Amino acid sequence: MTIRELGEKLAGPPEITITVLGDYCLDKYLYIDETKDEKSLETGLTAYQVTKKALYPGAAGTVVNNLRSLEVKTLCVGVIGEDGEGYELLSALKKIGADASYMLTDNRRCTSTYTKPMRKNSELNRLDFKNFTPMSKQTEQKLIENIYEAVSKSNALIILDQFTEENCNVINSNIREEIALIADKYPDLIIYADSRAYINKFKNIMVKCNNHEIKDNGGVLYEKNKKPVFVTMGEKGSLVFDKDGSHEISAVKVEGEIDICGAGDACTSGIVLGMALGAPPQTAALLGNIISSITIKQIGVTGTASREQVREVIAEL
Q1: For residue 59, what pLDDT is reported?
Q2: How confident is the model at residue 68 (pLDDT cuts 50, 70, 90)?
Q3: What Rg value do the Cα atoms of the chain yield, rounded?
Q4: Other Cβ atoms closer than 10 A to 213
Q5: Which backbone phi and psi does 14 adopt, to 5 degrees?
Q6: Which residues, in sequence order, are bridge partners of residue 57?
Q7: Strand stretches in 85-183, DSSP E
Q8: What is d(CA 267, CA 202) in angstroms, rounded to the nearest whole number?
Q9: 3-state secondary structure of 217
Q10: 299 contacts: CB under 8 Å, gap ≥ 6
Q11: Nearest alpha carbon to residue 17 among 61, 71, 93
């Protein structure tokens, strides 16, 4: 299947359901009006005045946001806290039409949150909330049940392993073992994992990494799992490793100011959607590059791409 043939499949709403499992975060943008700076009487420091905020699903939620913009039915599976950020995250997921019925809340956890102060269209030091302790066995067992229920209704499963604190978040060692079992139970299910620190610990599934160092080991990862390996490399495009070796996939040229926040997640959305629609890995990777080229042109927000925008770019290739 060529990229133009894949584009034709996007002419109508794709009859695809994708489960997104992993670390869901709230992206909280705080927009500062620099003309309203005040000096704190207590500390003498400048008090920034926030005049607007925007809330988006982040991390695994960014993948969901992209899939929903592409009109894909999306099932969300993750764990959040019983806190205000959790309420805002669920509201943001429901607002974009995602199915959040498989999300779990746990009052012993905090909702992972990226607080992003924005000043003059630039992001200042981020303020993060995340978990540094393991989830309970009870929550883990319920999570596993929800994963199985969701994937039984899905064409594909995306795993987003966001954090580097081992066994402190949703994708821990036990969940990785369950994912390997799911791959055995559902051999036709497209399963794809994106992990910042533990990509080598996934078994029998497709994997993606944005670490440039992995390009020297992509073939090794393919031989380990016998599934395609995707490596994103920003403006240099991406690499795909499969049974035929390695393949360079060109980036789509973008001019002007860009914001690369969420570009990797946008690419993930395109790759998995493309494969769910029957495209081979190389064509799916190009779709991922196209979608990320659209999202990075959206400054100061977590960008998305519509099917119409994607088809317009394909027509210009």
Answers
A1: 93
A2: very high
A3: 20
A4: 8
A5: -65, 130
A6: 26
A7: 104-106, 113-119, 122-123, 127-129, 156-161
A8: 20
A9: coil
A10: 121, 257, 258, 259
A11: 71
